[in-house]
Amino acid sequence: MARKVCHGIGHGLSAKMLKFSVRPSAYEHIQKAVDYYDDIDPRLGEAFLDEIDTSFEQIQALPEGFQKRLGEIRLAFLKRFPFGVSYLDLNKSFLIDFITS
């Protein structure tokens, strides 16, 4: 049975992460990636979700630490997977615009 990505993304996001607003299209991209990696090995799907959680924590800890790519949109690349998290810093709350591959 396929794992369903929800507002908590992976299991690592805590209440402090509620400052994130994630667009539905970003959830769809995350879900497709999780499904793909789960088909290979469920541990890969879990590792992917952990990387997403880590990127959200890094964005919150140092929002200006990632390169601007288009106007004010910044991109935080995942370390282990060929994806990046695009986001806008909206006065210490964050809009996760999309997940790119």
What descriptive keywords fit this protein?
YaeB-like fold; single chain
Walk me through what this model shows.
The protein has helices at residues 24-40, 42-61, and strands at 20-22, 68-70, 73-77, 84-89, 94-100. Strand 2 (68-70) and strand 3 (73-77) form a beta hairpin. Strands 1-5-4-3-2 form a five-stranded mixed beta sheet. The chain has 101 residues and is α+β, with helices and mostly antiparallel strands. It has a single domain (19-100), classed as YaeB-like fold (2-Layer Sandwich), CATH 3.30.2310.20. The chain has two helices and five strands, in the order βααββββ.
Q: Estimate the strand proportion.
A: 15-25%
Radius of gyration: 13 Å
CATH superfamily name?
Answer: RelE-like
How many domain units?
Answer: 1
Coarse structural class: alpha+beta
Q: What's the architecture in CATH terms?
A: 2-Layer Sandwich
Shape: elongated
Task: Summarize the helices and strands and which ones pair or pack.
Layout: E1 20-22, H1 24-40, H2 42-61, E2 68-70, E3 73-77, E4 84-89, E5 94-100
Parallel strand pairs: 1-5
Antiparallel strand pairs: 2-3, 3-4, 4-5
Helix pairs in contact: 1-2
